[in-house]
From TrEMBL:
This is Inorganic polyphosphate kinase. It comes from the Bacteria. InterPro entries: NAD/diacylglycerol_kinase_sf.
Length: 299
């Protein structure tokens, strides 16, 4: 007998909850903000809107289903099951934070603050939750297969991301490494920079787009479902020992960008999740390219 679907509601702490965690009480948090010319009322209103959205989405789960909730900070310890339907209730970035822990489960994005969030990934309103949950389990469920990027280190460590993967120093030092694409001749170009960013079409609405615009790049930005990545080296520094001839490029399926570390310590993290990063030391190498896994976002 197959298990009934399980709705996994993913959420994160609100700004109001973070204020309470720091200041202890509503009154102390209100005083802290008022002493800086701000009011807690707007923060509290958005908190209540988010809580109400969670309540409405939870109530929309069919009675024959199982359901649970997971907070963003616990995602790396949560075990998703094949029959799960993942409902992200919050901001666009929360979908990206969740994507790396999934393996083909359908994802429904519910926008808790329409007009404030861009709605690139959280495309739906809370009132649509019941219909979306039923649609997600249909044989012909309509989904977008969003391309993801992965980093694989030479010690088999692996990292997935929906928007982008960044490789660089853990602080404000300089990243030193050798960079080459698959099939390149020789050891690659030695570089000193602020790091390397490899992004997807979904990430082309965020950090990747910022670099693309700043660079005035002639490369076409990929769409979220395109099997194409763009990469940029940030602030490459020319010196007698380091070059700047390879600072941007494009990767298709099966192609990879290889970096060999020549620093004491570099970190690799995806979608801003610095707490869940790979750490690489001198002599290690890492390959970045299109992941075999994609994100199934219910449309």
């Amino acid at each position: 007998m197959s298990l009934a679907p399980r709705a996994v509601l993913v959420h994160r702490r609100t700004e109001y909850e973070e204020l309470l965690a720091r200041h202890g009480t509503h009154g102390q948090a209100a005083f802290f903000l008022s002493s800086r010319g701000r009011s807690i009322d707007e923060v509290a209103r958005r908190h209540e809107d988010t809580r109400q959205a969670l309540r409405e989405v939870a109530a929309a789960v069919p009675l024959t289903w199982r359901s649970t909730r997971v907070e963003r900070a616990d995602l790396d310890r949560f075990l998703f099951a094949p029959e799960d339907v993942v409902v992200v209730v919050g901001q666009d970035g929360l979908v990206a934070n969740t994507a790396k822990y999934l393996s083909g489960q359908a994802v429904v994005g519910i926008d808790t603050d329409p007009g404030r969030n861009p709605g690139v990934l959280v495309r739906h309103r809370r009132t649509e939750a019941a219909a979306l949950l039923r649609a997600a389990t249909a044989t012909a469920a309509r989904t977008d297969e969003l391309t993801m990027v992965e980093a694989v280190a030479d010690d088999t460590q692996r990292l997935l991301a929906l928007n982008e993967i960044y490789l660089g120093p853990p602080g404000h030092q300089t990243a030193r490494y050798r960079l080459d694409e698959d099939g390149g001749d020789g050891p690659g170009e030695a570089q000193a920079s602020s790091g390397v960013l490899v992004g997807t079409g979904t990430g082309a609405t965020g950090w990747l787009r910022s670099l693309w615009r700043e660079r005035g790049s002639s490369l076409a930005l990929p769409a979220p479902c395109d099997a194409r990545l763009l990469w940029f080296v940030r602030e490459a520094w020319p010196s007698p020992a380091t070059g700047t001839s390879r600072v941007a490029g494009e990767l298709g399926r099966g192609q990879g960008l290889r970096l060999t570390v020549e620093s004491d310590r570099l970190v690799v993290f995806g979608d801003g999740m610095e707490a869940d990063a790979l750490e690489l030391t001198w002599g290690q190498s890492v390959r970045l390219g299109i992941a075999e896994r994609s994100l199934r976002l219910v449309v």
